[in-house]
Amino acid sequence: MALWRAYQRALAAHPWKVQVLTAGSLMGLGDIISQQLVERRGLQEHQRGRTLTMMSLGCGFVDYPDALITNYYLWPAVQLANFYLVPLHYRLAVVQCVAVIWNSYLSWKAHRL
Question: Which GO biological process entries does UniProt record here (predicted)?
């Protein structure tokens, strides 16, 4: 909880910087999950440049119609549930957790052979 409180303080003090760093971190984490859990590359075959690229993008657009369609199904449902069922102080955490899964999917979709 101390880490979460520190994050909240940083977010209140520097919202733009923290949100940019959060987005980049989540994109990087999504790529790591994609490479290690989905593609099962292992540490020796992990493409660090790819992870850094995903992190630097901070957000992603994949030029695949099914990814875009999936986006339109996923996020409205997540946000509806988030706003109606999740207490205010947990909403950001819920969206960030879903974002990690979404970023893993985008990374896998963009880099599959």
Answer: regulation of mitochondrial DNA metabolic process
d(C-alpha 35, C-alpha 81), whole Å: 29
What value, to the nearest 5°, has the Cα angle with vertex 98 and ends 89 and 11? 45
Check residue 43 and report its DSSP letter: T
C-alpha to C-alpha distance for 72 and 69, rounded to whole angstroms: 5
Contact (Cβ atoms closer than 8 angstroms) between residue 31 and residue 50: yes
Q: Residues 111, 50: contact at Cβ < 8 Å? A: yes
Could you report the per-residue pLDDT of 36-51, keeping only the tens digit for each?
A: 998 899 999 999 998 9
- CA pair distance 42, 103, nearest whole angstrom: 19
pLDDT tens-place string over residues 83-112: 999 999 898 889 989 988 888 888 787 777
